[in-house]
Amino acid sequence: MIAYIERFVHDNDVDSMPEPETAEEQGDLSPLFNGVDLQGTVEFAGCGSDSGRDFGGVQLSKPLALIRPANSDDAKVVRLASRSPHLTVAARGNGHSVNGQAMAHRGLVLDMKTIEPKIIVDPATAQADVSGGALWEDVLKRCVLGYGLAPRSWTDYLGLTVGGTLSNAGVSGQTFIYGPQTENVTELEVVTGNGDVFVCSKNENPELFFSVLGGLGQFGIITRARVLLQPAPDMVRWIRVVYSEFSEFARDAELLVTRAEGDSFDYLEGFVFVNSDDPVNGWASVPLDSDQFFDPSCIPRAAGPVLYCLEVALHYKNEDPPSAVDMRLERLMGGLRFVEGLRFWVDVGYMEFLLRVKRAEEEAKANGIWDAPHPWLNLFVSKTDIADFDRVVFKNILKHGVGGPILVYPLLSSSMWDSRKSVVLPEGEMFYLVALLRFCFPYPKGLSAEEMIVQNQEIVQSCIQNGFDFKLYLPHHTSREGWKRHFGNQWTRFQERKARFDPMAILAPGQKIFPRNWQPS
Ligand code: FAD
């Protein structure tokens, strides 16, 4: 454990890294930019922006330059980096990674968000062409307000860029129906590590298309994505029900995600909370409205230290008769085994529902905890091991909570995640997303950021020791061995793709997978 903390402190001590040797490493990059037709602006060393930080707040870096591209053509600046033996380029979406993934220490950071977002909707084909640096929140507003259409698959929080989530997967409560966001794009425009621009899809340059989706930014910079749309509903009935037993929670959640499309909810997630009056981690985290009351006397006496909440939502149109919505709902809820008396619901507008985390963001900003560190841990855990994971991790290591949501809900793998894409999953038909969305609260006093990191490590070690089949989502590994284990039998393919699309390992150095001038192993 101590060795881990030492490594953590050392890795983040940017001033302890070897002194730069060449002029460009010292920050004199200006000659490199001579004669380059860049429409945007370049801010050299010391770039006093956020480019050396991210949402996680535990990694720091010192980029040599921050490039604010004016248009997607400026992404070809990666060609510049290839003229030097050292330079790397990180496309930065909204910097909402938690382990420095969008950073480029002594490299170039390309701020994708400064390109004015283009969101061009084609109602005839129900698709939108969207720039890679556009925020999903802006995509939502443009599609719904302008056309009554909406993307099918979302993330919980929409202050993330299209290129940033497509580089990972993009999962939320719609994933069980439509797959992750990476399954809901039909075409990309990509600038590869050689600075070449390609349009790619399942039929045109398919290898690049499959590589880039879930590719952790390793194979190209996404400058445009074509996103599938569907008619947007007007309203959402948003429901939470509570379980005292994990087995019953899992049984109901799995039942609902395996029902045929159109015969289930439009959204399904779940979370674990502490069985106590803890204001952050406990009962109070369940009600959906301030006038709703969580009655602890409903909880069975035999309940353990944590409880489970299934969260579902049903879409409807303004013209749907209320009785029809009620009937659909009762049919879907029939047979579920949640605790009597612990059912909460509200009706909200569709956009309000999708922007629900923005309200939490505003509150967290007001409390000062949004800008504090977030040592988050995200895992995909096989269905086969999730009951043991509950016993070892939720009921034991995390029985006091994490200072924020602990998400846990099932996702279908086989039909919903195309294995030609770069994301890696546990084996089997179904796995669970587990997300520890930690916040550092000064009051009530929780763990410090360092203690949270140690606890994350303990959880990962427990998974390994217990032989659980799991993968890190939004992965972070500090060694080549760690990455090899992560990709497993897809490591060779991942390396071959790197050699083909970014042979000098210029792109996304913050992922720490390939150093500049790497050799396949
Ligand atoms: P960044 O952090 O800026 O970049 C992430 C990686 O992608 C970096 O390696 C970067 O170099 C690369 N990259 C960025 N833009 C491009 C591009 N245009 N082309 C190629 N590579 C690029 N994830 C989910 O799946 N579901 C959720 O519900 C969810 N909720 C979240 C809520 C919050 C509050 C936060 C902070 C994160 C959440 N995430 C969620 C995680 C999020 O999807 C990832 O952290 C994502 O990478 C962040 O997007 P970003 O635009 O900030 O990307």
TrEMBL record:
It catalyses: N(6)-dimethylallyladenine + A + H2O = 3-methyl-2-butenal + adenine + AH2. One of its GO terms (biological process) is cytokinin metabolic process. Keywords: FAD, Flavoprotein, Oxidoreductase. Coiled coil: none annotated. Residues 59-232 form the FAD-binding PCMH-type domain. It comes from the Eukaryota. Pfam families: Cytokin-bind, FAD_binding_4. Its EC number is 1.5.99.12. The keyword Oxidoreductase applies. Its cofactor is FAD. PROSITE patterns: FAD_PCMH. One of its GO terms (molecular function) is FAD binding. Belongs to the oxygen-dependent FAD-linked oxidoreductase family. This is cytokinin dehydrogenase. It comes from Sesamum angolense. The lineage of its organism: Eukaryota, Viridiplantae, Streptophyta, Embryophyta, Tracheophyta.
